[in-house]
């Protein structure tokens, strides 16, 4: 059986096992932000070798708080009960700041999506997050 990226990272850099249910929503969002960014950058570079500026411009439409909020709204009815609970924890978090170019509501929805992404990554269920993200992008028209 093939190892997940998370399993390979933990094998290379062993850490004590932590119950993912104990992570705060903002810790999950911190991780989820990186995973989400990796997914979007992979999408951009898969279109071919281009200048870094063009790659960056291609990713901007997916990584803004507004876009992430729209994706989050678009996947609501697709979430399992557990996923919806994690999403709500992220949306109800109390961040220290929010994006300058987004409303607080958009920022909290983006944080919720990142929280869900981080949670599914830690569960080694990135396939589920990719499924949700693909549906969200299509439904949101991004």
Arithmetic mean of pLDDT: 92
The whole-angstrom Rg is: 15 Å
Overall body shape? globular
Number of distinct helices: 7
> What does the main sheet amount to?
none
Query: Could you say which structural class the secondary elements and strand pairing correspond to?
Result: mainly alpha
What order do the SSEs take from the amino end to the carboxyl end, as H and E?
HHHHHHH
- Kindly, what is the distance between the CA atoms of the first and last residues, rounded to a whole number of angstroms? 35 Å
Give me the count of strands.
0
- Proportion in helices: 55-70%
Which regions have little confidence, pLDDT < 50, spanning 5+ residues?
Answer: none
Any descriptors?
single chain; 142 residues; mainly alpha; 7 helices; 68% helix; globular
Would you summarize the structure shown here?
The chain is mainly α. It contains seven helices and no strands.
Question: What is the element layout, followed by pairings?
Answer:
Layout (H helix, E strand, L loop, with lengths): L4 H8 L12 H21 L6 H12 L1 H11 L5 H11 L12 H19 L3 H15 L2
Helix pairs in contact: 2-3, 2-6, 4-6, 4-7, 5-6
What does this 3D model show about the protein?
By secondary structure, this protein is mostly helical. Helices cover 68% and strands 0% of the residues. α2 packs across α3, α4 crosses α6 and α4 crosses α7. The longest helix has 21 residues. It is globular and about 40 Å long. The chain starts with a helix and ends with a helix. The relative contact order is 0.19. The mean pLDDT is 92.
């Amino acid at each position: 059986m093939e190892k997940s990226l998370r399993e390979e990272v933990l094998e290379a850099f062993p850490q004590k096992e932590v119950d993912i249910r104990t992570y705060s929503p903002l810790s999950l969002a911190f991780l989820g932000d990186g995973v989400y960014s990796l997914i979007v950058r992979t999408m951009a570079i898969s279109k071919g070798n281009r200048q870094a500026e063009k790659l960056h411009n291609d990713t901007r439409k997916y990584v803004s708080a507004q876009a992430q909020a729209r994706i989050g709204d678009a996947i609501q009815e697709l979430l399992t009960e557990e996923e919806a609970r994690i999403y709500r924890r992220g949306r109800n978090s109390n961040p220290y700041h929010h994006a300058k170019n987004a409303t607080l509501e958009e920022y909290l929805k983006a944080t919720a999506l990142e929280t869900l992404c981080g949670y599914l990554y830690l569960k080694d269920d990135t396939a589920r997050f990719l499924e949700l993200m693909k549906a969200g992008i299509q439904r949101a028209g991004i």
